[in-house]
Write a structure and sequence with these properties.
alpha+beta; Arc Repressor Mutant, subunit A; Chorismate lyase; three-stranded mixed beta sheet; 11 strands; 24% helix; UTRA; GntR family transcriptional regulator; transcription; transcription regulation; WH_DNA-bd_sf
Length: 251
């Protein structure tokens, strides 16, 4: 089964851009010209351009045309290795920029658990959770959006009710849970990719639909999930690096 026409057109233009055949600043054919030359509809051309714009490959200049965009320099975030697990703010101490100063802002709230959060925490949909959202910056550039959720029935009314407040603020999920007698003994991660949501696009100053690297992390005490978190990083501006250690017996 062939890909839709807009996917085929986007792929052809993408290959030209990534190969260097279409250099930064190159003006792409106009929509009427592509409609005439390729025998496709204007909707197909618009959809292809929309996709390439979300990927950060082209830019539209009103009154002038559509151009190959200057590729931004990808900056590196290095993930901690050696099995170290922190967790407050979620993942962010695990990531350090290779240049620039990291900082974050956060906002806490309580409310009902969304479907995916309820699934990861093993709770009914709509159950009470404490949610903290973080926007992480390197210098003045927003680099990631992260959210963490903890079961309300576990942390409400305790000294660790909000990760960024109280005597145990910023001490990490494992240490905070230990305060209330919960021993985290396992951490599970998933990595995937998806388009940026409208809210993420605003917070990260990127086009809606930008491809995001998404990492989910869930902390477990025995069989109970006591916290879960998600971090989303725009792949058009950042790469995540991890150095893998070779066991001594294999060297």
């Amino acid at each position: 089964m062939e890909d839709p026409l807009y996917v085929q057109l986007a792929q052809e233009l993408r290959e030209g851009i990534l190969s260097g055949q279409l250099a930064p600043g190159h003006k792409l054919p106009s929509r009427p010209q592509l409609v005439r030359d390729r025998g496709v509809s204007s909707n197909v051309v618009n959809a292809a351009f929309d996709q390439l714009e979300r990927e950060g490959l082209i830019e539209r200049r009103p009154g002038s045309g559509t151009y190959v965009k200057e590729r931004p320099r990808l900056r590196r975030l290095v993930r901690a290795s050696g099995g170290r697990v922190y967790g407050a703010p979620p993942f962010l101490p695990d990531l350090r920029p290779t240049d620039g100063k990291a900082s974050f802002r956060c906002m806490g709230e309580t409310g009902p658990a969304p479907v995916i959060v309820a699934e990861r925490l093993g709770m009914p949909v709509g159950a009470d959770v404490v949610r903290i959202e973080y926007v992480w910056y390197v210098d003045s550039e927003a680099a990631a959006v992260a959210s963490s959720w903890e079961p309300g029935d576990l942390v409400r009314g305790t000294p660790i009710a909000f990760p960024e407040e109280g005597p145990h603020a910023l001490s990490g999920v494992v240490a905070r849970m230990h305060v209330i007698g919960v021993q985290v003994d396992r951490v599970v991660e998933w990595e995937t990719a998806r388009p940026a949501t409208a809210d993420e696009a605003v917070k990260l100053a990127c086009p809606e639909g930008t491809l995001m690297l998404v990492i989910w992390r869930t902390y477990l005490a025995g069989e109970r999930a006591v916290a879960t978190a998600e971090i989303a990083i725009p792949t058009t501006r950042w790469v995540v690096e991890r150095e893998l250690q070779i066991p001594e017996e294999s060297a």
